Amino acid sequence: MTATLLPTRGGRRGLEAGMLVFAALLATGAFAAVTYAHGASFTVQIAYYGAGFVVLFLGAHLAVRRFAPYADPLLLPLLAALSGIGLAMIYRIDLANADSAERAGRSAPSAYAPLQMMWTLVAVALFVGVLIVVKDHRALARYSYTAGLLGILLLLLPAVPGIGATINGARLWLRVGPLTFQPSEISKLLLLIFFAGFLMRKRDVLSVVTKSILGIPFPRARDLGPVLIAWGASLGMLFIENDLGQGILVFGMFLAVLYVATERVSWFIIGLLLAAAGAVIAFFTMPHVQPRFEIWLHAFQGNNPQGPSYQLVQGLFGFANGGILGTGWGQGAPQIVPFANTDFMMSSLGEELGLTGVMAILTIYLLLVMRGLRAAIGVRDSFGKLLAVGLAFSLCLQVFIIVGGVMRLIPLTGITLPLLSYGGSSTLSNFMLVALLVRISDAGRRPPTPATPLVDPAAAPDLIAATGPERVGPAEPAKTTPAEAPAETGAPTAPIAPTAPNAPAGSGERAP
Amino acid sequence: MNRPIRKLAVACLLMFLALLVNANVVQVVEAQSLRNNPNNSRLLANRLNNERGPIVVGNQAVATSVPTPGQTYKYQRTYPFGTLYPNVTGYFTVYTETGIEQSEEDVLSGTDDRLFLRQLADTLTGRQPRGGRVVLTLNQAAQQAAASGLAASGHRGAVVALDPRTGAVLAMASNPTYDPNPLTSHNGRTAQAAYDALATDPAQPLLNRAAQQTYPPGSTFKVVVAATALMSGSYTPQTVIPAPPTYKLPGTNTVIHNAGEEICGSGTSDTLTGALTISCNTAFAGLGVAVGAQALQTQAEAFGMNETLPSFPLPVAESVFPTRIDPAQTALSSIGQYDVRWTPLQAAMVAAAIANGGEEMLPYLVQELQGPDLALLSRTQPRVYSRPITSDVAAELTTMMVSVVDNGTGGNASIPGIKVAGKTGTAENVPGAPTHAWFLCFAPADDPKVAVAVVVENGGFGGSAAAPIARNVMLAVLGGQP
Question: Which of A94, B296, B393, B429 could form a disulfide with A111 if both were Cys (CB 3.0 to 4.6 A apart)?
C-alpha cells in the first residue's frame, strides 16, 4: 500500500552526481584494464574515452537537475554504469577482432567502439531532449493513437521493398545508405505509449466481469478486441519480420500493462493462452521457429555444437571459462562467440568478469527495473503508472529473454541486451526509455506545489467520487495516494486528508 | 493499480532470481564439464595464450614458452635441448601433452591451487597469469653422457641413473630419441605430419624405453639371486656352490652352458663371489633351484617387481618375476631368462638399493615446484620405498659386485681411483637375434653417489656394449672426465 510519498525529501541530485562519478570510475577503469591487458601502455585514447564519458553523463546529469529535479537519483547512474561497461566490452572485442585480422593478414575490421560512442552521444542528447520536450508525461497520453499508428507503421517499414533489409535472417532493419536502423526498437516505445493511453481509457470497461470459470472471473467476450489486436500485431512482427524476440517482448509488455490496468488475472490467463496459441502456430508454420527448440534442447547433441547450436554452446563455454571471478578484462576469448558485442554481450561479460560480474550486472538491471516500478507506484496518474510499468517491465522481459537465452534457460531468440549491446537503435530507444522513467519518477517525487492548480477541484467533484484517487489530469497537486481499494469494490472513496489546500482534480483527459 | 504493480515487481524479481540461479549453475556447477567439453576451443586459447611455466634442469629451462608475436596464439612451447629430454619432459602441443608436461600440467599452466593467490593478484593487476616452474632432479652432464653413449652405440636402448641415497633420477635416456619441437607447431598440419612420422616409425622413438619397456634381465638378475641366497642365511659370499660345465634343467633334457662354453671356478664348483664375478650360468641356475622359486619371487617382489611403481610422474611398465614356476623355469629365471622381465628403471633401483645399504628409495623426477616468481611451492622429500635386503647383505653384495668390475666381466666400467660395483648381463631375447647388453652398477662403492642401469638392445655383451656407457654416466655424476 502506498503511503505518503515523502514530499519533503529533496531531489537527491548530489547523490546522483556522486553515483555518476562511481559509474564513470567503473567505465574508465574497465577501459584502462582492457588496454593494459592488451599489452599497450596507457594510451591517450583511454583518456579520451574516460573524459568523453564523464562529459556526456555530466551533461545528462545537468539536464536532470534542470528539467527533472526530483527524479529518482538512481536511474541515471545505473544507466551510465551499464552504458560504460557495455562500451568497454565493445572496445575490448574490437581489439580482439583487430588482433585476429592482423594475425590472419586481413585488413582491420570496422571498429564498433567509436560508433557506439557516437550513438551514446546521440542517445544522451535524445535523453536530454526527452526531458526537455516531455515536460509532463501525461501530455503523451494525448498522442497515444498517433503513437500507436506510428509504431505499427515503423514496424511495417522494413517489409517495404527498397528500404527494408534482412540482416541475420530477420527483416527488421531499415537501410539508408550505409546506416542501418532497427525501427522496431523505437516502435516498442510508441506502441507502449499507445497501450498505456488506450488502457487508461478502457480499463474500467475491461474490468467488467460477466462470468467466472474455475473461480476466476472472466471479462466479456466483446472486450477481447484490443487484446486480439495486440496479439495480432505481435504475431505479425513474427511473421513479417521473422523477429521472435521483439514479438514476445511487445506482447509481454502489453500483457503486463493490461494486467495492471484491469487488475484482472483473467486477462493475464487469456493473454498467456493466446501467446501459447501463437507459439503453436509459429512452431508449425514458421521454418525459423522449430530449429530454435532443437538448438536449445539438444545443444550438445550430435553435430549441433559445431552446427546450429555453435553460438549458444560457444557462449556457454565463455561463461564456464569465466567461472566465479572471470578471466579479467581483455584476457578471455569472448570474440569466439558470434555477435559477442550484441546479443551475446552477457556471455562476453560472463567470461571476463565471471559470475561475480554477471550477478553485479543483473543486479544493476534489477535495480533499474525496480526503480522503474517504484516510479509507477509513486506517480499518481493512471497513464503514468501504466507507462512506467510498461517501460520497466519491457526492460525486465528483454533482459530475461536474452540473458536466459544465452544461458540456455529458455530458447534463444535474437534480441539485444539493453544498454550494454552495441547498436544504434537499441541504444537510442533504451536511453529514451530511461529518460521517460526519469520523467515519471520526477512527477511522482515532486513535492506538493500549491501554487499552480490548473483546474479548480470544485469543478469536477463527481469525478473524484466516481474514480477514486487514481485519475489523470494535467496537474495533481498535493495529495496522498490512498489504497487502491476503490477500483475493486467500486465503492466511491474520497481521497484521504489532502496535505495541501488544493484537492485533487480530474481533467479533460477524463476517465470514464 | 498499485497492487498489481507490486505483484509484477515480484514477478520481475522471480525472473531475475531465475537468471541469477542459472548463472550460478552455468558458471560454477557445470563450469568444469563445459570447460572440458571437446568442442570448447577456449581450452586451446587458454593453453596457448598464457605463459606456461618452464621445466628446468640445473639452472636451464629444457621446456619453455616463447612469445609468438603476430601468430594466432601468443606462446609456443619450445625445447631448447631438442632430442636430449623428450622422453622425460614429454611434449606440449596445441591439443595434448605427455610426460612431465602432462603430469605437472596444473603447475605449469598455473591452475594449481597453490598458485591461486598469485593468479588472483595477476588477475587483479590485469597481468597475464603465468604458470609455475617444475625443477627436475636430472643432472645435465649425466643425461648428456647417457644420451650420447646410446646414440654412439647405434642401437636402441635406455639408461637410468639414480642417486641411491634419495631415489632422485639423475639421468633417464632412451634411444632412439626425437625432437619434440616440430610437434608444438601451431600449424595443425605441420604438427600432425611430424607426429605421424614419429608414431609410425618402427623404431618407436616416442617410447620411453627407460621406464616403459621391459627386457629379459639376463645375468644382471644374478644379483637378485645372490641377494636371495645371502638373505636366506645359508650362504655367504665364500660359500662354495656347484658350478658344473653344463647344467641340465630339472625334469628335461635341455642343457644350458656358460657364455662361450666357459668353465667356472674349479670346473665343478665355485664360491658365490667367484660365480658372480665371471657370471657363471650353471652355478646360478643351480643356486636358484636350491633357494627355490618362492624365495626368489619374494626377493624380486621386495625389490619392486610384480608391482606398479607408485607416484612416478611418467608411465612405468611393471617388471615381472613369473609366479608358480617349475624347477626348470626357476633355473632359467635365475639367469634372467624365461619370463623374467624388468625395466631399466627397476634394474637401476636394484643397484641403488644395494648401494644404499639395503634401503631402496622411491625414484622421483621432480625436485621442486616453484611459482612463476621462483617461490617454493613444494620440494620432494625422499621416501624409502622398500627394504629388500639387510645392510650386511648389501655390504656383501657390494664387495661381490666390486669384484665383478675389478676381476671379472665388468672391467670396462672401472674408473681409476674410484671403486665401482657392477654386474653385466647378456640377455637372449628373440631366437637368432643378437643378445641385449646390460650393465648395472654404482659408484663409489664405499660411498655410493650414483647407481646406473644400461640396456643396449641387441648390443651383444653387456661388458663391452653397456658397461662403457654406464661408466661415462657415473663419471659425469662424480664430476670426472671420461
Answer: A94
Strand-by-strand arrangement of the B376-379 sheet: B75-78, B60-67, B55-57, B133-136, B366-370, B376-379
| Letter string b/e over residues A209-234, b meaning 16 or more CB atoms within 10 A of that residue's CB | eeeeeeeeebbeeebeebbeebbebb
Catalytic residue among B219, B319, B333, B403: B219
Cβ separation A316–B4 shorter than 8 A: no
List all residues 6 or more positions away from A288 whose beta carbon is below 8 Å from its beta carbon.
Answer: A169, A242, A244
Tell me if ipTM is over 0.85.
no
Out of A320, A330, A484, the one facing B30 most closely (by C-beta) is A320
Q: Print the domain residue range for A378.
A: 118-445
Find the Cα–Cα–Cα–Cα dihedral B85, B90, B94, B95, rounded to 10°: 170
d(CA B459, CA A135): 99
Give the position of cell 619450445.
B78
**pLDDT per residue over A323-344, tens digit each?**
888 888 888 888 888 888 888 9
Q: Are residues A503 and A356 in the same domain?
A: no
Instruction: List, for residues A419-436, the tens digit of each pLDDT value.
Output: 999 988 899 999 999 999
Place of cell 528539467: A67
Is the pLDDT score of A478 beyond 50? no
Q: What's residue A499's pLDDT?
A: 40
Tell me the chain A residues in contact with residue B9 when contact means C-beta distances shorter than 8 Å. 370, 373
CA distance B127 to chain A (A): 6
Beta bridge partners of B159: B173, B454
Q: What is the pLDDT of residues A235-246, one digit of tens each?
A: 776 667 667 788
Size of chain A, expressed as the number of residues it contains = 512
Residues of B in contact with A365 (CB under 8 A): 16
**Å between B180 CA and nearest CA of chain A:** 25
DSSP assigned state of B342: B
d(CA B275, CA B255): 18
Residue A203 pLDDT: 77
Is residue A60 one of the residues assigned to a domain? no
Quote the number of domains for chain A: 2
Q: Which spans in A38-112 are helix H? A: 44-67, 75-104
Please give the biggest Cα pair distance in chain B: 118
Residue in A382, A403, A408, A471 to test binding to B, most B beta-carbons within 10 Å: A403
The three grid cell numbers given for residue B319, joined into one nine-digit string: 617388471
A62 belongs to a structural domain: no
Average pLDDT, chain B: 90
Q: What pLDDT score was predicted for residue A97?
A: 86
Whether B219 sits among the annotated catalytic residues: the reply is yes
Return d(Cα B62, Cα B99) in angstroms, integer: 13
CATH tag for B212-366+383-478 (out of 3.40.710.10, 3.40.50.2300, 3.10.180.10, 3.10.105.10): 3.40.710.10
Helix (H, G, I), strand (E, B) or coil at B377: strand
Instruction: For residue B241, give the H/E element and its range.
Output: strand B240-242
Q: Which of B290, B296, B385 is nearest to B333 (CA)?
A: B296
Q: A283 or B29: which carries more pLDDT confidence?
A: B29
Amino acid identity of residue A107, one-letter, is: S
